[in-house]
Write a structure and sequence with these properties.
The chain is of the alpha/beta class. It has 2 domains: 164 residues, Rossmann fold, CATH 3.40.50.2000; 154 residues, Rossmann fold (3-Layer(aba) Sandwich). A 6-stranded parallel sheet has the order 2-1-3-4-5-6, with helices on both faces. Strands 9-8-7-10-11-12 form a 6-stranded parallel sheet, sandwiched between helices. Helix 11 links the parallel strand 11 and strand 12. Helix 7 runs parallel beside helix 12 and helix 10 packs across helix 13. It is globular and about 65 Å long.
Length: 342
């Protein structure tokens, strides 16, 4: 049966914003097969204010002015998707957009200093798409209509290396510079691992290099992240790390880093918090670690038992393909869009 085509306008924070890339842009082509035409309107001024205080008023004006014409354009679409708020921590022009509206959330945005905007924006929308169960619980409590939609991994791109890896074992971490502190706090554990495993190395894939106090610099490889190398830099790893703090902001995280490791067939050692813990409970895909001793012990266990790591990596890969792949979740997103647009 032919389904009625729907036109959807997606308003995102900009071309370089990860959530726009992974929760909107990568869905555009797969959704076409479901009869959904998504047009993205990324912010040119940027969703987040510049560091300099004197630049913020003109930035705010530019951000709002660029969205004014979009209010009129919104009348031509069957559905409006706000990928978070139009302007960071503020409710601005969202009430003036026409048609059914959906809010997509992949962070605990209500924890910001002016976090009350999150509830107001959610109540203005016809529903909220939530990246994990912690986020969904918050918006459920507000009385909003919600859907759980994890951040999808393109498992055709993020896949295991075709040939068997060789060389010394490599511990890996991938992420943005703002989160490097989480890895740097593991320095005592990593030092213990290096002491027990003389050939082990650490690879840091990031937009800036790490700053360790005493860790042997000769055993730390920095790879500057780019869209071109984000997959190949992971495929050579022996295991992936995802340390996070034990707080509500971390519980709002959608474990995308962990999922990409798993998609590449890697075992993981992660902080068992929020969605990380939920993934660990789904299958034997890696280990949770809380203390420095835990981290050292679990990393060492995988380095000294490659067969165990391979089996965990294979299970993680299967889990991603079955439940978190772009192919799987694009169908769910299509169902959500149609249920609201109708």
């Amino acid at each position: 049966m032919t389904r009625t085509p729907l036109n959807i306008a997606a308003f995102t924070g900009g071309q370089t914003v990860p959530s726009a890339r992974f929760r909107v842009r990568q869905y555009i082509d797969p959704l076409k097969s479901h009869g959904l035409m998504v047009q993205e309107f990324p912010s040119r001024a940027g969703q987040y204010p510049p560091p300099s205080l004197w630049k913020r008023p003109p930035w705010l004006l530019a951000t709002i002015l660029e969205r004014v014409p979009h209010i009129l354009k919104s009348r031509k679409f069957d559905l409006i998707l706000f990928q978070r708020e139009l302007v960071s921590t503020l409710l601005t022009l969202e009430p003036y957009f026409a048609g059914p509206r959906l809010l997509d959330v992949d962070d605990a945005i209500w924890l910001h200093k002016r976090g009350g905007f999150a509830a107001r924006l959610a109540r203005l929308s016809d529903g909220v798409i939530c990246g994990n169960s912690f986020l969904q619980s918050y918006f459920d409590d507000l009385g909003c209509r919600t859907w759980l939609l994890p951040t999808a991994v393109d498992s055709d791109r993020f896949s295991p290396k075709a040939d068997e890896r060789t060389g010394p074992p490599v511990i890996g971490w991938s992420g943005s510079g703002g989160n490097l502190i989480q890895l740097e706090r593991l320095e005592p554990a990593l030092a213990m691992v290096f002491l027990k495993n003389k050939s082990a190395r650490l690879r840091v894939i990031c937009n800036r290099p790490p700053h360790f106090q005493n860790l042997d610099a000769d055993r730390v490889d920095y790879v500057r992240w780019s869209p071109e190398n984000e997959v190949s830099a992971l495929q050579d790893l022996s295991l992936g790390l995802m340390p996070i703090e034990d707080n509500d902001w971390s519980r709002g995280k959608c474990s995308y880093k962990m999922l990409t490791y798993m998609a590449c067939g890697l075992p993981v050692v992660v902080s068992p918090i929020g969605m990380n813990a939920e993934l660990l409970a789904m299958d034997e895909i890696g280990f949770g670690a809380a203390t420095q001793g835990d981290w050292a012990e679990q990393i060492t266990a995988l380095l000294t038992n490659p067969d165990l790591g391979q089996k965990m990596g294979e299970r993680g890969r299967r889990l991603v393909v079955a439940h978190f792949s772009l192919a799987h979740l694009s169908s769910r997103m299509a169902d959500i869009f149609r249920s609201v647009a109708s």
